Structure formats: structure tokens, C-alpha cells
Amino acid sequence: MKQTNLKYSCLIAVLYFGMNANGQTTPQDTLPKEQKIEEVVMIGYGSRKAVDNTTSVSSIKAEEVSRTKVLNASQAIQGKAAGVQVTASDLPGSTPTVIIRGLGTALSGRNPLYVVDGMFVDNINNINTNDILTYDVLKDASALAIYGNRAANGVIIITTKSGRGKGITVEYDGFVGVRNPLKKVKMAGSNLFAYYTNTALGTTTFSQDQPVNTDWFDEITRTGVYNQHNVSLSGASESAKYFLSLSNYDEKSILNGTDYNRTTIRTNNEFKIAKGITLSQNLSVAFNNTTPKPLGAFTTAYKQSPIVPVRYANGLFGVRFVGDNGFASPTGEAFNNVGNPVSQLYFDNEKQKSFTLQGGLKLDVNIMKELKFTSQFSGEYNNFKSYNFVDSKAIWLAADPTRVLNNTPYLATDPINLLTNTKNDYYNWILTNYFTYNKKFADIHDVEATVGMESSVKNGTDQLITIRRNMIANSNYWNLDGVNYKDQLDDLKSINGNKNTTTSYFARAQYKLMNKYLLTATIRRDGSSQFANGQKWGNFPSFGAGWVVSEEDFLKDGFFNLLKIRGGWGKIGNQNVPLNYLPFNTGTSYNYAFGGSVMSNGMTVDQVYDPNLSWEITEETSVGLDFEVLNRRLKGSVDLYDKVTTNIILKSIPIITEGISNPGYAHLGEVTNKGVEVALGWDDKIGEDFGYSISANYSFNKNELSNIAQQNVNDIVGGGLGNGQDTKLLNEQSIGQPLGSFYLYEANGMDANGKLTYVDHNGNGTIDAGDRKYFGSYIPKSTLGINLNLRYKSWDFSANGYGTFGAKVYNGKKAQRFSGENVEYSVASDFWTPTNTGSANPAPFNAVPLASTYYLESGDFFRINNISLGYTINKAVTYISSMRFYVSAINPVVFQKFSGFSPELNGNGDPYGSTGVELDAYPTLRSFVFGVNVKF
Amino acid sequence: MNKKIILLSALAIFSFSNNSCSDDFVDVKPTEAISAQDLTLFNNNEGAESFVTAIYAKFLDWNMSTFAWIGVSSITSDDADKGSTPGDTGADKDVLDALNFNATTPSFRDLFAAHYQGINRCNQALAYLPQLNNADAGLRNRLAGEARFLRAFMYFTLVRTYGGVPIVDRLSIPGNAEDRTMLLTRKSKEEVYAFIEADLQAAIAALPDKSAYTGANVGRASKGAAYALLAKVSLYQKKWQKVIDNTNLVTGYSLTPDFAEIYKISGENNQESIFEIQGKGEAPAKGIQQYSQVQGATGAGGWGWGFNGPSQGLVDAFNAEGDTERRNATVIFRNSTLYDGRIVPSTVNNPYYNFKAYSSNYSGADNSDVNIRYLRYAEVLLMKAEALNELGQTPQAILLLNQIRDRAGISPTTATGQTDVRTAIWKERRLELAFEHDRWYDIVRTGQAQTAMAADGKTFVVGKHELFPLPQNFIDEAQGLSIQNPGY
Fold first, then answer.
1. CA A598 to CA A588: how far, in whole Å?
2. Rounded to a whole number, what is the largest CA-CA distance in chain B?
3. Predicted local confidence at residue A22, as pLDDT
4. How far apart are CA B154 and CA B172, in angstroms?
């Protein structure tokens, strides 16, 4: 391997897809600056030189993706692409939410489409980030229309590495790291808790001189440890390219007992069968082994009182009883409804295993010099198994020590234990065939055309779930040969998920005149099985134009190395709703046991159904400017866009007297997203030894519900806190507000007794539902990412940061008081008393508080995502061509205004669900990693 | 290789894949749930029955019969206190107990929504039954009668709780303006009662006697149940003669000799039972969701949440009459032993708990075998007694009253004269039907509410508290078509 040169700029993607033999990763062989470095972006069913591209695409280089040592590649690109907002959770195995150019669809699928080597997948958890060669984000409609039916949330195209170079090169990359929480919330100690709760109840139940002061968060967490080892072999010859990689990722996360292990094997090969005929094959296998622990333990730890010990002196688990002496005691009066988080973890016994197989075959045939035919088949198979063993009797005994002390008998009809076994699997495939025509006429007219069709089948997940009781306590003996488990069977579910099929036809034409003027047009026609007859088909056209101004005579070889103006318009669709049909509702909740003994099956119609449900369509107009100046050292681009989703699909809640309990989906309104994205990068070197680059990207997005379609749209109440209070509302009054806006009472101080008072907006003298107003949404208004890279001789340093501004978050767990839970230190040490009337916190209370702005906080934050420092030794030993050592800090520091654990609150992504509301206390993690990368 | 072969093979692959591009390819039948287009699969007796089974099943749901219902019908009254620990509000049970509620109190929304969900199931059954022509016509007729009885039952609860409500008697079509008006416009109390009576008359014509239900049909609505409910509906409208006429037609029942027996498993669906909601605790279990758990004793040594405990006033009322039999069958005392040997230790949080919700075999389970007894023969006799007394036939009223007292093991009444006997019958209703979701409605109907609640330390506002508030969500949805009850 030649001496590597780490000079690079933000936009280089160094692969010619399919047609050239030099697919490779960075770092690249040195090239003098005068030669044009070909920059190529993926545009769906092909690639295009970046300079000829009229659409908005963010390309992220492979080593940017693999630099941050995280499990899922999408988390690694946080802050690296303008207009792409990634919200990640550090729970191992979780999928980050990726929102591109604002939330356009509310309920019908919020994640972008991932195209991995031509295969449509929902998440990339099974892909080793070291295997990724290119990661391209298609952002605007003129780029996305070619993907029509699933493109409304953006598309991320990922290609995995293939063979390169001469002979075989071997590379090893491994790291170990530790993790601990980035930010903790300080809770009151036991004496302060006693004082606060006594004040709230108006009694002296709790002693002020507690012997026990349990820090529950510390009790259930540990320092997390994780490591990854990755080996890859790649090589190429005249007629074949080959690539093999193996990796293993292992993490013991901070919650006691959690364990996550992923092993992947990948082989990507390319065979030149004959002149003009190439067959590529990719196959990856991922094995997953997880021991999960309930995340609810963090919330229980937040709420449980510090006066309760982890275990009493007699060894039994501490519970929420307080004795006459004011201390926690095994017998006594229950003072709250919170369990013991250590026992919650102790009794949780679960394991999950999964196996994912993804692969594809691609045939490229050069029929004539200008005409190429490509046929590609990809498939995915996933198999998942899990068990969950609940030691019911032991849990019942641990919940109340008097049961053990008094020898209370356990009900004979209750199970001693319950074992739930789940098995599910699914199988998807896609077949794509297309022709590509490429010809240059008269040396100035460059035409490229693509025509094709595609069919995809997404089989529903088939599930088998059994719950058996009174199993032998040893997991080896749970599935014995010869035993009939019929009498131990409590529940048997066998579910065939609904199938989803699509058929599409697409065409694209691209025209380039004199290397200066660019025109693109695409059209795609999609049919989807999700909709009823008459609604299945949709057409999605788009247009794009570009002008490379820097090629014009008046600008050529002038100040601008590159100046390009581009713009486009497109229509894209979203079909990611459940199969739309009217079902009969059957099942346990409709059954009744006449005479209290004979179970009868019940059936009814309990669902809203709209037969006119069809594609959710987004129309987008966008313009952009790309420039490079100062000898290509300063590069930048500015994009403006206006996205309108005219028939947004939302859950339609029926009128309360209709008596339907299951909402259905219907077209209910219009959402607009308008915004601007700016990216700037400076890349230079001082002398031969020192090089640096700084880049920043900033995006601003205004999300607005601009219209509600029908007169009789019913209110959607969301953001429930589980105590009867709700924080979000969608109805006619929400027009003009962002989606998912918080709808709350306005707290404006305290009355003479220290209770919170609220503004009476409708002036009727009482605080009622008419006094609620909108106070902003969890959707941030702007995001900022900053990346810095330095290189000095053999040292390299990089840092990047990411932040969002303008979002609001609701501190739901703080508001979920029933009685006797612990309080935060900031509240317990400074609350209203007759002598401290200026406090920000009201007098202690036990009633359910109204959902108000008192709990609403700013979600602004800026976090340093990654700092890493590396040192490369070249040719240390004869057979080692280079060795790089590195240390990295991931999420080392965050600046946030939110007093809770994390302002990035994904929830389930539903804007009218718990997104933006912190109900569970799961912390963001900070990691420190040491690793080595060796090339042989 | 020859270019032509390449070309041909490529086109072959292309056309091969074209097979999948017909419209059939994007036509997918559901496998997760049964499509409503496949009604033929249910065009038989079992299918017909399943539509009505779902209506009964609604009574087992949390929002229909558990926390919200316990709060609104029981905790509000002078018979019961909130219970549980002082700090545990149960979301809104503390405001219900204190009569401090308003239109946004969650229990009112839960109860309102639950009843209309049940009414929807009745309307679905009545719409589908005529289409199932392969099912036995007589069976379908009886099932339709059951659906109408249950619909009348639910409207009766709605009108007693909220006053006039929208009458939804058919399935509504989304987007239809007329249907929308029907769904959102409150009818008057009188119109709702008339609708209830029409449903009950139709049910009476279609339903058989209770004796016709055996085996897998025990617990279904019978003719006697329809008459008994019609009598009660008439009682609330002060149509005394109708009360007498209908109670006379409730035949084939008798009082259980031992009062406590009624609430044990052996007493379920016995000779006194007219209409009960059935719970099954044994796996596969399906009971009234967490009904026993919510009202079970709480604290160290307890098995439940501790809500809806008997009030001191009720215990005193039992003691004033010397009524130990009914008192001991209604109240679980702290520091006592129950009939099945279970010890209630002194460490439980509250002095009294609801015995009628206790399940011996499944005490703290989500699904217990407890039944809710909505109509039984003792109440039929008391209704008849009250009506007779109102019409001036006091001696016959006293006879019936003494039947009840005799069964309870207490001495015959000493009351004479219409006014005293009226008060005695009202007092008897309290002791006999305690914790059977009747007390609040009874004191409002009879005008006792203000004094009774004052004795319990609560302020009953006359002119306001006779009706509970309609849920604010409904008033908002109605956009002017319906207005709130006065005072809220």
C-alpha cells in the first residue's frame, strides 16, 4: 500500500458505482490538486457526478460514518449533514429516528427509506458501520421522486464495500471503551425527602433523622463496557473483486445486567463473467444476542424514596412501607405506589436472539455501447426468538415482606411462574429491472436515460407466542421431549402479519448541454396493496434544472472554482400505513364467560374505516447554490425548500357517542415545512505536515399545520402522562402551529398558600379547559453541526458537535406525582413556604398537577458528539503497512437547558404520542474508547 | 458470448418479472383480522351469538365497570369513602368523594365513552343479525331481544347519571350530516326514558324465562330481567302503577335464605338472581377487569388497592338497626377473619373494605370470579313495596318490607303510616342494596341527597348535583349542538 495522504474535503465520494474497477475506501492515493477529482453521488438506480447533479444530496464519507464508535451508522452521522436531524437513544439495539427536512408525515411512518445495496430495509441495525462505503442522503423531491412510494420521509442510500486494489489486503479495527451517564438528575436525600413529604401531607409521618439514604440510580447502574473487533479482507483481480468482513460488537450497558452482542459476516463479490457482463453478489448475516433489562427501572429509581433500603437487615427487598418510628420498615403503612428497582432488575429474566440474512444478486449487461441492462434481486430474512421468565410467586412474596414474615399462603390458583416464549420471522424481497442509456451527441449533448420497473413483497411478520405456567426453574428443562404442555398453557397466540406488496414503473431522463446546463425529469408510477380498490395507484413526477455558472466564459477560471445554481420540483408519496380494510374485531377482549364458567367468543365492529384512504403526497419546491472558491479550499452550499403535504394521514378519532374504540386512519389536513440549509467547509494545509478542515452546517425549518381538511375532524388528544392529564391537542385551533405542539395551562406564580396559579385566558373566573394555549412543539426550529479535523504529520484530531434549538420538552416524570414519591433536589431544597414566598417551586403537594407550563422547559442543547485523536505508524514492521492508534470520547460534554436526563426524547416518534415528553428517566451515555486500526 | 444471446436472456428476465405487474399483485387479503367482507363465514348460529356476546363482554371492561364506575356510582355516595392511602388520589377519586368534581374530571369521560361503546355493539348486533339468514330465526329473535335489553340497561345508566343524552339507535355513516346531528344533540330525559321503555317492551316479547337458560347460556338476559328493569325504570319516573304491574310479572324467583350466601361463588346465579354480570377467574380468565383488586384491602397484609371502603355512616346505620348479618356480609373489618379463613391483619390501611367485591379464590388477581349483581329479587320486592306505599296501600307494603327484614334476621318494622313506611323502605334499600351501585342514584331520586350527604360531611348542591356533568370533550365536540348540565 502506498503512503496514505489524509487530505480530503467534505464532498468526495470516491466510488464509480458498477462501471469502474476501482471501488475503494478512503484514504485515497495522492492526486495533485490540478487534476479534477471525480466526485460522485448516489441518486437511485445509478450515480451521477456531483457537478452534474441537480438535486440536493448529502454524501457522508465512509470514515466519517465509522469514526464515531456507535452501533448504528445513523447515529454516527448526527450533525454531519445539513437538514438531517438524528435523534438517537443509547439503548443498545435501538434505532435512531432520522428526520429529513422537517416532519412532513405524522403517523404514517416517520423513518426514511434505507436502500442498502438496492434492498429496501427499515433499519440498519444489522449492518456493521465499518462495512459501509457510501452513505448518501437524498433530501429534495427531485431526487426522491424516483423512489416514489416510500420517499416522503427522505431516502438514505447505503452501499457496502467491495473488493479493491491488487492482491489481498487485510484490515483489522478494534476498540474497547467504557460508558457512563452523561447527565444525572440530583434527587433529594432521605432527610430532605422526609421534610418535603411531611410538609405535603401535613403530618409527621417521616422522621427527619433517617438511618438509610439510598441512591437508587447508583444502585441500578454500573460502568458500561463495550468493545468491537472487525476484520476485513478485500482484493481484486482482472475478473473478480472480493470482499469479506467479520465483526463482533459486545456491550454491557450501564443498567445492571444488560448485555448486547452482535456478530456480522459479510461477503460482497463481483464477477466479470464475460466482456460487458458483470454479476455482483452481496450477502450479510447478522447474529444478535441480547439480555434486556426493563428501562422502567430508571423511572422507578427516579421515583422511589431514599428512605427505603435496597434490602432490610433480614435480607428481604426493601418496600415502600413506613413504620411508626418514621423509618422504612418491613411492616407498616404504604406511602407510595413505587416498587424496588433493584428487585425489578433482579426478577427480570429475559433473553433475545435474532438472525438476519440479507443478500442480493445483480446482473449488469452491456447490450450495446450505450445501453446497459441491470437486473437486481434482493431479499431479507429475519428470525427472532425470545423468552421471558416471570417468577410470579417470588415477586409476590418480595412485594410485601409481611407475606414472608406471616407465612401468608399463596393463592393456589395463581401461577408459580410464567414463561413467555416468542418466535417470529419474516421474509421480504425486491426485484428491479432497468435499462440505462448513455450517449454524448455532437460532443455537447450528454443524455442519460433510465427506464425500469420494480416489484416488492414485504411479508408480514409471523408470530408464535406461548405463555406457560409452573415451569421447572432451570432453563435447560423448559422444552423437554415427550411432555405435553397443554395443561400448563395459559395463552397461545399465532399471528400471520398482513402482507404488503408494491409494483412500480419508473423513468428518468438527464440532459447536459455543454457541461453547463442541466435538466432532469423523472416519473414514477406506484401501486400499493395497502389501500382499497380504486386508491392503489399514484403518479410521482419531478423536474430539476441546474446551471454550472462557473463554466460560463464570464466566470471561467475566475474567482469561483465552482458556482452552480440548481433547483427542482417533485411529488413524492408515503404508503406506510397499516393495510386499510374494515375488520371484525374478535379476541379475548370481546369474549364473555356465561355462568362464570363457559367462555364464549364475541365479535363486533369496533373500528373506524375510510375506504378513500390513499397515498399521502408531499410536493416540494427547492433551490440551491453550490460554490467552491479560493482554490477549492472554501466550499459551501445553500438550499431553500418549501414542502407541502396536502393530505396528511392522521389517526381519525371518532365522535365519542359513535362508540368506536379503535381509531382508524384518514386524510385530515395539510402540513408545510419551509426551511433553509447552509453548509460551509474550509479545507487547507500549512506546509506539507499540517492540514486542517472545518465545516459547519446549519438548518432552519418551520413546521406548520396549515389546514385541517374536514369540518368534522375530531380532536386528537395526545402526550398523555398516565395520570389523566394530556399535554397535546390537535383540532381546528392548531392551524398555524407546528405538529405536536404542547397545549397547556399557563402557570403564572403562586397564590397565598403556595399553590400554582394559572392564567384565566377566557376570563370566566375559573380555570377550565378554555384556558389552555399552545406553547411550542418538541420539533426543533434549527439544528447546527460543527466538524473539525486536524492533521499534523502522523497525528490526526477530529471533533464534532451537534445541537438543536427552538424545541420544547415537557418534564413528564416530574409531573407524575401520586403520593410519596421522591422529588428532585432542586425542588425539595427550594420550595414555597410562608417565609420563602419568592421560590420558583410551589408548596409541596400530592394531587395530580395540571399539565402546565411549569413543567415545560426549553429543549435547546449543544453536545460535543465525538472527540478523537489518532496516531499513525507506517510500515512499523514489514508485513504491517500501517497502524493507527486512537482514543475517542463520545458525547463527552453537553450544554443543555433541560433539567431532566436528556432533551432528545424520541418516544415512538408519534407527534401526538410521548415524543418530547420525558416520562422515563433513561440517561444519555458518555463513552471513552481506545482503539487500533491495522492494515496488513 | 454472443451479444444476441445476452440481449435475449436479458429481455427474458425482464419479461419474466413482468408477470408480477398485474393488478392482482397489489391486491392483498388481510391475515391479521377477519375482513368484514367475509360475513358468510359467520352466517350460522355461532356467528349470530358472537355479535351479542361482545355486548355482554363490554361490561367487563375497565372503563365500564371498574374504576370510573366505582367512583361515580359509589365513592360519591354517603355509603363509601375513597379509601386507600391519604396521598393516593386514584387520579380523581378524591374529588369525587368530596363532591368537588367538574366537567374535566376523567371518570365522567370514561364512563360516557364506555356506555356508548356498549351501545355501538348493540347497534352492530341489531344491524348484522337480520343478515345472517342461515342462522335459526328463533335464536336470532331472542338474541335481538337480549341486545335491546342491554341497550336499554346502558341508556338507563346514562340517563340516571347525565340526564338527557344523545339517542344513538343505528349505525352512523361518516360524513353524513343527519347522523352527526343525532350523535351530538342531547335529547330530553323524557325522550330517553321513552326509548328505554320501547326497547324493554321489545325485549319482553322476545326473551324467554330464566329457566330456559342452562349450561353455556346461564346469565343471559331473561324475560324476568326485562320486567324487573322496566319496573325500576318506572320507579325512577314515579309511575307507581307501572312498577306494581311489572314487578307482578317477575315470577319464578325467591329470596336466598342466608343473605351472605348471595355473594359467595355458591350463590352466583341462584334463585334470587335476576341479572348478573359474570366474572371467570380460572384460566383462561375473563373477569370484570381488576374489580376485586381495586377494592381489596391495601397495606401490609392486604391484597388490593383499597378503594371504595364502607363509610362510618353506613356501619353506624347497620348497627342502629341491629343488622349484623347484612353488615358482616357487606363490610370487611380490619383485624378479622373472613368466611374462608383469610386473616385481615391489623396492618391494613383502612378500617373497612367492600366485602361484596371480595373473591375468595382470586382475591388480588386482575380477573376474579366476582359477579356484579345488578338486579335481584329482593329489590323487586322493595320496589313493589315502595310503589304500593305511594299509592296508599301501606299494609301490603309493610308485608313485603318485612319479608326482606325477616330474611336479614332482624325484627319486623315498627313503622306505620305512609310517611314513616316510606322512610323505612328507603332505609331498607340502603342496608339491603349497599355497594350494588345503587345508593347515589337512590338518594337523588328520592330527594334524600342533601341531608344524607350532609350527614356524611359533604355538601350536596341542590339544583346542580342531581346530575353529573357531561364530559367536557363531548361538549367541545358538539360545538353548540348540546349544552352542559346546569351548574358546571
1. 13
2. 117
3. 28
4. 19
- Set of cell numbers at residue A404: 414472608
- Strand partners of residue A867: A799, A889
Query: Do the Cβ atoms of A498 and B124 come within 8 Å?
Result: no
Q: Which among A603, A612, A723 is the top mutation candidate for probing chain B, defined by the most B β-carbons within 10 Å of its own β-carbon?
A: A603
Torsion of CA A706, A711, A713, A719, to 10 degrees: 40
Match 341486545 to its residue by C-alpha cell: B147
A604 to chain B, any CB pair closer than 8 A? The answer is yes
Burial profile B433-453: b = 16 or more Cβ within 10 angstroms, e = fewer? bbbbbbbbbbbbbbebbbebb
CB A851 within 8 A of CB A917: no
Dihedral (CA of B360, B366, B370, B372) sign: positive
pLDDT digits (tens, 9 = 90+) for A864-904: 988 989 999 888 788 888 899 999 998 899 999 998 888 88
B235 pLDDT higher than 50? yes
8 Å CB contact of A460 and B474: no
Please tell me the distance in Å from B110's CA to the nearest CA on chain A. 10
- From first CA to last CA, the distance across chain B in angstroms is 88
Q: B-chain residues within 8 Å CB-CB of A402?
A: 300-301, 345, 347
Q: Closest chain B residue to A331 measured between Cα atoms?
A: B300
CB A493 within 8 A of CB A463: yes
Cβ-Cβ contacts under 8 Å, B269 against chain A? 595-596
* Dihedral over Cα of B200, B206, B211, B214: its sign: negative
Burial of A753 (C-beta count, 10 Å sphere; 0-12/13-18/19+):
exposed
Name the one residue in this structure whose C-alpha cell is 460551509.
A680
CA dist A399 and A340 (Å) reads: 8
The overall average pLDDT reported for chain B is 92
CB nearest to A495's CB, from B32, B113, B471: B32
Gap between the Cα atoms of B402 and B413, Å rounded: 6
State the Cα–Cα distance between residues A890 and A195, nearest whole angstrom. 39
Work out the pLDDT band at A109, boundaries 50, 70, 90. low
Residue of A nearest to B90 (CA): A818
Residues of chain A found within 8 Å of residue B37, distances taken between Cβ atoms:
581-582
pLDDT at A720 over 60: yes
For B27, name the nearest residue in chain A, comparing CA atoms only: A529
Which chain A residues are within 8 Å of B28, Cβ to Cβ? 498-501, 529, 579
C-alpha grid cell for residue A865? 458528539
Flag whether residue A475 sits within 8 Å of chain B, measured between CB atoms: no
Interface of A with B in 109-138 (CB under 8 A): none
Q: How far is A41 from A271, CA to CA, in rounded Å?
A: 24
